[in-house]
Amino acid sequence: MKTSASTRLLAGSFASLACASLAFASLAFAQSEPARRLVGSAAFSDWRQDAPGTWRKIAPADLPAPLASEPTASRSQVVPRPDGAALKTADGFSAEVFASGLEGPRVIRLAPNGDIFVSESVGGRVRVFRLEEGKIIPAASHVFAAELERPYGIAFYPPGPEPRFVYIGTPTKVLRFPYRNGDLKASGPAETIASLPGADGGHWTRDLVFSRDGKTLYVSVGSKTNVAEGHPRATTQEIAQLEAAHGSGAGAGVEFERATVLAIDPEGGSRRNVANGLRNCSSLQLRPKTDELWCVVNERDMLGDDLPPDYATHVKEGAFYGWPWRYIGAHEDPRHAGERPDLASRVTTPDVLFQPHSAPLGVAFYEGGQFPAEYQGDAFVALHGSWNRAKRTGYKVVRLSFKDGVPTGEYQDFLTGFVIDDTRVWGRPVDVAVARDGSLLVSEDGNGTIWRVSYAGAAKPAQITEPAQTSVK
Hints:
By secondary structure, the protein is mainly beta. The chain has a single domain (3-455), classed as 6 Propeller (Neuraminidase). Helix content is 7%, strand content 32%. It has three helices and 31 strands. The chain is globular and about 60 Å long. Residues 1-33 and 459-473 have low confidence and may be disordered.
């Protein structure tokens, strides 16, 4: 564990945060362009068309033919934030640094008492930020647990005001630590609740969320491969047996219990596949006041710049979402042509389609009291950004529109500005979470920062005091 180096880096970042806050004041109230609506082929644009307020809507009928463009590998170069680079927010909002110097900050979750837990996947730890009354930036942070294998998902159990455990998802395990409200460090060792497929590599993010009644822990498990290359062709009898036990489109071989959402007993005593064909469901949430499970999904690569769209969807029990044989409904992947015709009529089409290769990693529903009323019930999604698209896309936070609890299929640019040019970026958004004061926290792992987006109409402290140096205990 690199505790000493990360401690010095984080301490230095907090010591200079007050000065940085003044510098970032220039980010406040960045004016967005007039709202535009990009529909159909116009929505398959790049970062140059990004602007807070712009709406996009992509429908299954808008998809081009496979390989209409040559597959491209175009990884971005992450650089330090250039002098004068400003984030752009929706009108009336501002953005400022909440914390910096983190090692691969990923998932953000709020404890019932308002403490902010963050998984540092590169650093192998889970960190806790505590806000003093009336402050909008943390005075210190604490390491809750360390020496973990790429920690990602975080969930408190049982759900409600008095949890007894913190559950943490790693590539190969679900762990839990004893916890009481206000704990800044785990009071006991980790207990392994369940083993997960992942020791052989592939998508490694494992997000967690509990059902409202606390009886079920949902765990996202991404695929090992891009599109099940070399996937064994099972016999009709083997397929029937597999699907009888694990649902339509269940994976086999190296993909067994992968590209799925698992439902696990909180004590690890039982497990089942909730839905299959979700190539990499990287974030899980329940829509507030419901049992409706939602996830955002990274779809497959190498079918061209504009195929297939990534997506957000509510996860139906027993549903099949296509991977690897189909995508976005009954569209057949040419790399598996003719292999599973029986699945064509069984594919569930997802709810909201994003520009292909945007790489959605985090989702959060808004129930806070700070943003305007029209944001209530909508969701925010962090787009990590493309690596295999000639025209760069993603690298922003978007807002999903809901009407009476139902997604409209549209999404709106909310926070942009991380892209410098066609090759360089200075931030890669990962997760979003709503803080107790109603502001939106955004983690990005390119430069190891967490941003706070607030609305101008909300009451704020009159003064920001310089935070104390971080103490790692």
